[in-house]
Amino acid sequence: MTKSAAPLHVTPAAVITHSIVSINGEVDPDVTVQHARTPDARIATTIGGVHMSLYNCQTAQGLLEAFAATRGQMMHLPREIPVSPAPAERPAGRAMMSIEWTRPPAYAVLAHEALNKLKTGTVHWVELYTGPITWQLRDRAALLSLIEALKRVHHVAIAVFADGEQYQADPSELGYPAA
User: Fold this and answer.
1) Helix locations, the chain, DSSP H
2) 17 contacts 134 by C-beta, under 8 angstroms
3) Distance between CA atoms of 137 and 10, rounded to whole angstroms?
4) 85, 87, 92, 97 alpha-carbon torsion, rounded to 10°
5) Least confident of 2-11, 53-62, 123-132, 143-152
6) In what order do the strands lie in the sheet containing 42-47?
7) What phi and psi, each to the nearest 5 degrees, are found at residue 101?
8) Phi, psi dihedral angles at 15 (to 5 degrees)
9) Measuring CA to CA, which residue among 148, 20, 125 is closest to residue 73?
10) Which of 96, 72, 87, 91 is nearest to 23 (CA)?
11) Would you tell me how many other CB atoms lie within 10 Å of the CB of residue 89?
12) Closest C-alpha to 143, from 23, 62, 19, 45
């Protein structure tokens, strides 16, 4: 085994500052709870190759609020586009990206359209900017199933985290005072 020289700096050699996650088709999350109702409580969820860890209910509520805000742009999206099969070398349960959410993200929603590669039609999608992650939502099936998945995560977070009672309002419901 070869080993590099001892580092002179404590700062990592590189940091990923922005990533894009493209989602289409219905998603089915896997939600895991660890150390419920303790100061070390954590919810881990994997949604379509993206693993997310949440450490408080405020964050779960903030993520749900961000995705619920995209519904206003849903009319621009096709109902469902075909999901390409996963490559044989990519195991089904393997996370391709891991996100540690420590607080609710600031967010912005923007609808996009562009000509397809053959320049024979227009492709529509919605982008949700949540700080270091841009979520490209390609169809309504992805958007609606992500909102349902995050609603489940939020309901679990209410029971798991100490701040659950304070952040139990559902941002996807009518009458929620959005930011």
Assistant:
1) 57-69, 140-160
2) no
3) 37
4) -110
5) 2-11
6) 30-34, 42-47, 50-54, 97-101
7) -90, 115
8) -135, 130
9) 125
10) 96
11) 6
12) 23
The model's pTM = 0.86
Strands 30-34 and 133-137 turn out to be unpaired
Which tokens go with 157? 């977070």
Six-digit token pair at 13?
């050699």
Structure tokens at 28: 């089915």
Residue 44, phi then psi, degrees to nearest 5: -115, 130
* β-pair partners for 101: 54
Phi, psi of 114 (to 5 degrees): -155, 160
Take residue 14 and report the two structure tokens written for it. Answer: 């590189």
**DSSP bridge partners of 53:** 44, 100
Query: Which pLDDT score, from 0 to 100, does residue 1 have?
Result: 64
- Give the closest residue to 172 by CA, choosing from 136, 148, 143: 148
Structure-token match 């419901």, residue found: 173
Query: How many Cβ atoms are within 10 Å of 99's Cβ, its own excluded?
Result: 19
Tokens of 131: 């700080």
